[in-house]
Amino acid sequence: MKAIYFWLVTLVAIALVPQAVAQPTHIQPRLVSEVMEPVAGSTITIAVEMRTDKGWHGYWKNPGEAGLAPRFAWDLPKGASVGAPAFPVPHALTIAGLTNYVFEADHALLFPLKIPAGIAAGTILPIRVKADWLACTDQVCVPERGEFSLDLQVGAGAVTNGPQFDGWRAKLPTPLGSVVTFARRGDRVRLAIPYPATADVADAHFFPNDNGVIVDAAPQLFSRSGEVLIASLSATKGGMGIPAGVLSIGGRGFEIVPQAGAVPADGTPLNEQGGNGSLTTILLSIGGALLGGLILNIMPCVFPILSLKALSLAKAGGDANPEQERAARRDALSYTASAVAVCVALGGAILVLRAGGSAVGWAFQLQDPRVIIVLLLLVVAIALNLAGLFELPAIGGGIAAQGNGFVTGALAAFIATPCTGPFMGAALGAALVLPPAAAMAVFAGLGLGLALPFLALGFFPVLRRMLPKPGAWMATLRRILSVPMFLTALGLAWLLGRQAGVDALVRGLGLALFAALGFWWTGLRQARGKGGLAIGAVMAVVAGAIGVAVVPQSAPASAATVDALKSEPFSEARLAALQAEGRPVFVYFTADWCLTCKVNERIAIDRPEVAAAFGKAKVATLVGDWTRSDPTIGRFLNAQGRSGVPLYLYYLPGNAKPEVLPQVLTPGTLIALTS
Fold first, then answer.
1. How far apart are CA 233 and CA 228, in angstroms?
2. Which of 54, 98, 280, 434 has the most neighbouring CB atoms within 10 Å?
3. H/E element, 294
4. How far apart are CA 142 and CA 202, in angstroms?
5. Can you name the CATH fold of 2-165?
6. Phi-psi category of 131—alpha, beta or left, where left has phi over 0 and alpha has psi -120 to 50?
7. What angle do CA 192, 198, 202 make, to 5 degrees?
């Protein structure tokens, strides 16, 4: 009776009061545009932001067993049009036995707005909308309405509210990208949803697009059978519609449009596997990060940092006295602590930024030219120190000398993690869907893996005895090791030019020269037995501050495409079109700051024999450039369970699920795909 009473009160309120409330009280909509000066003929995104009072809720496009979806009546300039709204992922709310699909916090509905073509720049475009919506608590519902307006002006199309819209888009469901089948048997409708067996499922719930397809209040049963997630839902009597809708897993939504087909038998119930953040998954993710960090020590992008620490390891020796032994252990612990701390800090920053709606991933810091210019100055200073231009007395013998493990470990973790290696990509991808504490443990595991070789050498003298004996050769080695650091500086200068343009490259080189003059002056004073280290340090800091202030942030940048394969820029729409043509598709994601990516492109991808094999098999190639932050690519990588580059995918005709290729490629690996 209580449920019937609630439903009748809601219906009466909707039927009798809609004209009584002129001003919204509990949900306050606001009309916002991503682009305030759109280009004529373009399509932009506008939003109706719904600011919701605490204790109240609004409704999804399918409100469930009670409630009312918001309705909009647009008044637009001639030739303009608005498409259907995109809703964020809702959650189920059961009141008095009725299950509703609602939003209990601020949210936004996104609409595509087509701007008329042929309009002169400066033309004002008034956008008007009348809206009706229902605001409810667990006791009462209040119909509300309002009229809202926004004036746009035809212009150059600059994005005005990009970060805000990125945050709203991050909450929208994304296409699953795999074929989902459904079958009915008796009073049950069952869905077979391709979902990686290694990915945990937490708080799974299916929200149907249309009312009357399933019994909303009935329990939804989920089980796993290998790479398939099976949903068993209670069907309504006579309900024969297609169970299209949104599958929510841990609050993240996937749009699915199933087709009739075979559904395997139920597998292991989820409540018998453990949900998201289960101990097994957390331990596997930490183990993968540990192994990935260890392998990272031999990746091309890490070698310059390894060369720094080689000096201190050789000096420690294997026949040290007790005091030297303690010093070696302290140095190893210091190196490990700093490597772990930096990885945890970077991981924490990723989690915070993603929580705010940014589609960032691992090595996100290298997508900012300001960070690149600071790294350029730092690497130039290290290279000059190793070359003997000046000394760091407090460290003794170079920046990598024993006793400075903390600085070296922090430097290793910061510079040596732009690329994801084997095991590391899957582990970091899992970290992004684990609970925060577990995710931080995964990032810590990465830092520990990176430091593990030096930790072992610090605590096991027998390993140090395998290193060459200290001697005069170390001075020569130190000079030789400055070469890879100078090459690293050259690579950073190139990357700065790629990201921010030639002007930024010239400014960066000029500031590096300014800092080098300071260190040269320091070296001259040190040769005369005087101090002067502060002079070089101050000049380097000043150069860094100037660089951060003057480097432009809006210059276009793109990773070099592979000419031999006639690559096209990646987009999900283009990928879908190529698949619809029945063509095999090779998709790879790269960035100019990823050395592994560049090595793979040089030795494996940009090869005439690969181009010939791809041409014969009519393989299309798409390249996703992540040199600069791109939310679209970031979300696609996240959907593949990855948080960084490189990532190589191969789609066979008729197969929506790609084959994930190794992160270290050979021409033979790619040619074999076409056989």
1. 16
2. 434
3. helix 279-296
4. 33
5. Immunoglobulin-like (2.60.40)
6. beta
7. 70
Q: Could you give the CA distance from residue 284 to residue 286 in angstroms, rounded to a whole number?
A: 5
pLDDT per residue as tens digits for the range 60-108: 999 988 888 999 999 999 999 999 999 999 999 888 778 899 999 999 9
| Percent of the chain surpassing pLDDT 70 | 79
**Exposure of 79 in the CB half-sphere (CA atoms within 13 A):** 10
User: What CA–CA distance (Å, rounded) separates 590 from 498?
Assistant: 14
pLDDT given for residue 318 in this prediction? 53
Per CATH, 2-165 and 568-672 having the same topology is answered no
Smallest Cα–Cα separation from 598: which of 673, 480, 491? 491
- Contact in structure between 174 and 635 (CB atoms under 8 Å): yes
Q: Is the pLDDT confidence value at 373 over 80? A: yes
Dihedral over alpha carbons 374, 419, 568, 369 (to 10 degrees) = -10
For residue 493, what are its two tokens? Answer: 């200068």
The alpha carbon of 498 is separated from its chain's Cα centroid by a whole number of angstroms, namely: 21
Which comes out higher in pLDDT, residue 80 or 518?
80
Which residue, chain included where needed, has tokens 């990009």? 162
pLDDT at res. 1: 42
Q: How many CB atoms lie within 10 A of CB 397?
A: 19
| pLDDT score at 57 | 93
365: which 2 tokens? Answer: 């810091």
Calpha distance 31→109 (Å, rounded): 10
Single out the residue of 457, 425, 428 nearest to residue 440, CA to CA: 428
Domain segments of the chain as ranges: 2-165, 175-272, 279-550, 568-672
Can you tell me the distance from the alpha carbon of 74 to that of 206, in angstroms, rounded to the nearest whole number? 31
Q: Which of 2.120.10, 2.60.40, 3.40.1130, 1.10.10 is the CATH number of 175-272? A: 2.60.40
Q: Which residues have CB under 8 Å from 517's CB, separation 6+?
A: 539
CATH annotation of 568-672: 3.40.30.10
Burial string for 131-150 (b: 16+ CB within 10 Å, else e) reads bbbbbbeeeebbbbbbeeeb
Q: Which has the higher per-residue pLDDT, 575 or 431?
A: 575
Given 3-state DSSP classes, what are the helix, strand and coil percentages for the chain, each rounded to the nearest 5?
40, 20, 35
pLDDT tens-digit series, residues 569-590: 998 888 888 988 889 999 999 8
Q: Burial of 581 by CB count in 10 Å (0-12 exposed, 13-18 middle, 19+ buried)? A: exposed
Q: Is 261 exposed, middle or buried (0-12, 13-18, 19+ CB in 10 A)?
A: exposed
Contact predicate 129/72, CB 8 Å: yes
